[in-house]
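Chapter review: from sequence to fold.
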Amino acid sequence: PVEVTMKALADLKKSGKIRFIGVSNFDRNLIEEAQKVVRIDFLQPPYSMVEESQKELLAWCETQGIGTMTYGSLGAGILTGAIRELPDWDEKDFRYTFYDYFKNPKFSKIMELLKVMDKIAQVRNKPLAQIAINWSTQKSYVSTAICGVRDPQQAYENCATFDWELTGEEMELIDSEIERLQMN
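The token string follows.
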């Protein structure tokens, strides 16, 4: 039961063994249930240009003073632009079974979104990954974003995201394209 887990976490925090309490993939009801026992400091939900299903929950967390640490910020890599053709992977490939990004109709919609991102990337001379991370972390309800990397260079490149920001116009352009494509 969530009460038992939260009580254990409250005890760990009280004893100084942990500083913060976070949960992953909790919905609002479960967060509220957990907070009957102890304050939740952070929520870790999925969130990206291609996965906005938790947007309302993220906004609610912001009003509650709950930080957010989103995952899937690069949409399993599809928002880096590395995949531009419909893949032909084994049907049991994790990217097929866990994500809907690599199958139509969503794949084709994402390719349309990448065209908008490509234009911004060209003007800014920035990689698509930075545009995707920048977009999500500029949302007031996103405290930080988790990104997978394959090597130190990708980590450095992702960190360079925070050396610049998308303009309000660029954010609106991306948001309107996401809305037009109705991916979520």
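Two observations follow directly from the output. The chain has a mean pLDDT of 95. DSSP finds eight helices and four strands in the chain.
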